[in-house]
Amino acid sequence: MTYEFNGFDLCVLMDILTSHQVISPHFPGSSSSLESVCDKRDTHLPYKMPNTESTWPSGWPSFTPNDNDPTDIVQKDLKASIVGEYGARNLRTAWVKTCNALNNVTSRLESQGNTAVPIFQADEVLSNPKSLETMKEAGCCIIRGVIPKPEASQYFIDLEKFIEDNKETVTGWPAERVAIYHLYSSPVQLKIKTNPRHLQTQRLLNSIWTDSSCSAEEQSAQNEPVLYPDGLRIRQSGQEFLGLGPHIDGGSLSRWADSEYRQTYHDILSGHPERYDPYDMAHRKNANPAMFPGGAQCSVMRAFQGWTALTPCKPREGGLMLVPDIKTVTAYMILRPFFKKPDGDWTKAEHWEIDDETGWFPGTYRWDSQLLSPASHPHLHLEKTLMSVPAMEPGDTIWWHADVSTFGSVGSI
Questions:
Q1: Going by DSSP bridges, is the β-strand pair 119-121/140-144 parallel, antiparallel, or unpaired?
Q2: pLDDT exceeding 90 applies to what percent of the chain?
Q3: Residue 389 in contact with residue 114, Cβ under 8 Å?
Q4: pLDDT per residue over 52-92, tens digit each?
Q5: Mean pLDDT of 331-352
Q6: How far is residue 313's CA from residue 413's CA, in Å, rounded to a whole number?
Q7: What's the burial of 234, exposed, middle or buried (CB within 10 Å: 0-12/13-18/19+)?
Q8: 85, 128, 141, 144: which could form a disulfide with 118 (CB 3.0–4.6 Å)?
Q9: CB neighbourhood size of 72 (10 A)
Q10: pLDDT band, very low/low/confident/very high, at 216 (cuts 50, 70, 90)
Q11: 297, 290 in Cβ contact below 8 A?
Q12: In degrees, to the nearest 5, what angle opens at C-alpha 366 toward C-alphas 272 and 102?
């Protein structure tokens, strides 16, 4: 789940985690004229989650063409213009390639389970940075022991004491039983995000990215992490969770509406999804993910998002769920709005027709994160591919590319 503060997305984990966003120091350009015609804000409220996880919890939202607003000419014109720019033939070629590739991705993830999430030891990564290259396909990884376990456990004790000592002024949500604290720069949080090993880990993750638009020296400078407000969640045992369901941060409609952001996915839209490089920041660094400002948007590029555990957390105990694939899943998400589901066998990509007549972007609400569901994105087979990450111990961290589909999962503890 995400919690918003001053326009930043703060990732918070059920149990105890602080979130660290690895972000390159690039700020988006100005919004285009599309923003000026949007005179109302979508209010996408959280959905109540069951406390015990099922195959696909009934509380998670679903998205269908019935959600389309026929009076919204902005999205309709945007879709038609993109089809005109790239051509229906190229889009169809990319669609068939991507859906076929997803069959292999689904089979692989279903077979591997959460072993598909790469795991590294911090000492290994810090001494051999090249080892991180192996996480690029998944778009996520766990790095264990970034902070020594005794130190991380003590941080938890110190945080609890800080909250107790300041209980008259520290607030959070929900008010009746706080789980997400309005606490962003407490002494412990400052210690964690300025921890030398943590900062070095962020630099190494940033170095995975490439930028063909600048010199090697400039690219090296872009590896420096930018300090970011950190969220804090303490989830009590048995506490129900209000969640948005599976989502991708970093903007929603802006991925298509902002020209620089759209250029990031040029290879996908032009019929060559196999050429797409998720780690090329040449256009992404100048994109405007907050083109439609809202609580779920961030105005800077985030190379990775992350959580740092301060207590143990096992699968189904309120930890993170994600789809550990970046390239093919992203291609599908970008192409999905341009095709309409057939009445018959939807599993065959060839049966889908170009949709250049409606303004429906599945699971896309301008001021929210990009939302996903089995109904709106069926080829992702989220019932099989959205999985709980491996167990984490105090001091462990998990990182994921900003285009990776995630959800702060329900728990059974």
A1: parallel
A2: 59
A3: yes
A4: 333 566 677 889 898 888 888 999 999 999 999 999 999 99
A5: 96
A6: 10
A7: buried
A8: 141
A9: 17
A10: confident
A11: yes
A12: 30
Three-state helix/strand/coil letters over the chain: CEEEECCEEEECCCCEEEECCECCCCCCCCCCHHHHHCCCCCCCCCEEECCCCCCCCCCCCCCCHHHCCCCCHHHHHHHHHHHHHHCHHHHHHHHHHHHHHHHHHHHHHHHHHHHHCCEEEHHHHHHCHHHHHHHCCCCEEEEECCCCHHHHHHHHHHHHHHHHHCCCCCCEECCCCCCEECCCCCHHHHHHHCCHHHHHHHHHHHCCCECCCCCHHHHHHCCCCCCCCCCEEECCCCCCEEECCCEECCCCCHHHHCHHHHHHCHHHHCCCHHHCCCCECCCHHHCCCCCCCCCCCCCCCCCEEEEEECCCECCCECCEEECCCCHHHHHHHHHHHHEECCCCCCCCHHHCEECCCCCCCCCCCCCCCEECCCCCCHHHCHHHHCEECCCECCCCEEEEECCCCEEECCECC
What residue has token string 């766990």? 142
Distance separating alpha carbons of residues 364 and 337, to the nearest angstrom? 9
- Whether 200 has a pLDDT exceeding 60, the answer reads yes
Residue 23 has pLDDT above 50, yes or no: no
Q: What is the pTM of this model?
A: 0.85
Those residues whose C-beta lies under 8 Å from the C-beta of residue 71, and which sit 6 or more positions away, are none
| Residue 112 one-letter amino acid | Q
Distance CA 242, CA 235 (A): 12
CA atoms within 13 A on the CB side of 217: 0
Q: Which is higher by pLDDT, 87 or 179?
A: 87
